[in-house]
Amino acid sequence: MVVQMSIGELARSSRLSAKALRLDDELGLLPPADVDEDSAYRFYAPGQLEKARLTATLRQLQLSLAELKAILALELAEAARRVRLPVSGCAGTMIRVARPADAAACAALYAPYVTETRS
């Protein structure tokens, strides 16, 4: 039997709201693993939690939809290595997400941001 998470469980674990998860489904960013035909409830595979956490982190950086899609299309570890984006309106400032050594470490993406100021 495959264990799945309800939208509420994923929301609590990923720090995304259920509304954000529904929107991510509509936009094709994070479709559920299964949708109940009768109730339309969304269910997610446990492996989708890391992608949801990455989505939450990227939303905090206020990326465009195109940037979100491009990063989320990558493997999680590769996405974590590549995220190094300028912050809109902050001239000379870059925000970089910590680079985990492997996909298992992607859960740590919430925490460390390093801010660099260029002269």
Would you give an account of this structure?
This protein has five helices and six strands, in the order βααββαααβββ. With 119 residues, it is α+β, with helices and mostly antiparallel strands. It has one domain (5-117): Multidrug-efflux Transporter Regulator, Chain: A, Domain 2 (Orthogonal Bundle), CATH 1.10.1660. The strands form two sheets. Strands 1-3-2 form a three-stranded antiparallel beta sheet. The protein has a three-stranded antiparallel beta sheet with strand order 4-5-6. Helix 1 (7-14) crosses helix 3 (48-60). The longest helix has 13 residues, at 48-60. It is globular and about 40 Å long. The termini are far apart. The relative contact order is 0.14. Mean pLDDT is 74; it is low at 85-119.
Total number of distinct structural domains: 1
* End-to-end separation: 56 Å
Widest sheet, order of strands: 1-3-2
Number of contiguous helices:
5
CATH architecture: Orthogonal Bundle
